[in-house]
Design brief:
The protein has 129 residues and is mostly helical. It contains five helices and no strands. Helices cover 60% and strands 0% of the residues.
């Protein structure tokens, strides 16, 4: 029992802080070492880290929950702006508003996916799985 506890505490000692892991994910780098890029192009992700060998999605689909929650932030901002009194008076202001929300969703997609991979990595390392 002591050997298992020692191995588990040694394993947790190597995990970077949650802030470091999330920042690495936002920068689209490996959450474990921070050296290798997560993506081979704008959205196509590598299977594993070339530096440390970490498999980014050991169970495909596990990062989906983190990704969807990050996606809803933009929609929540839009709904809150409309709820708290933002009323676009002209068609071009409405177009700009919805283009800004849509553009934010599309342009932040790789960063949100990187954060999702980082949060999945962190949850696996901290709580097992």
């Amino acid at each position: 029992m002591d050997l298992v506890t020692d191995l588990r505490s040694a394993d947790l000692a190597e995990v970077p802080s949650w802030r470091t892991v999330v920042l690495r994910g936002a920068r689209r780098r490996c959450p474990q070492c921070g050296v290798t890029r997560l993506f081979r192009n704008w959205y196509g992700m590598h299977e594993r880290c070339a530096s440390c060998g970490l498999v980014y999605e050991p169970s495909p689909g596990d990062t989906w929950g983190f990704w969807v929650i990050g996606d809803r932030v933009f929609l929540l901002v839009a709904i809150a702006a409309l709820f708290f009194g933002f009323t676009p008076q002209s068609w071009w202001v409405r177009g700009f508003f919805f283009a800004t929300i849509g553009g934010g969703i599309v342009l932040s997609m790789p960063h949100r996916r990187g954060i999702g991979v980082a949060l999945d990595y962190l949850s696996r390392r901290r709580w097992g799985g």
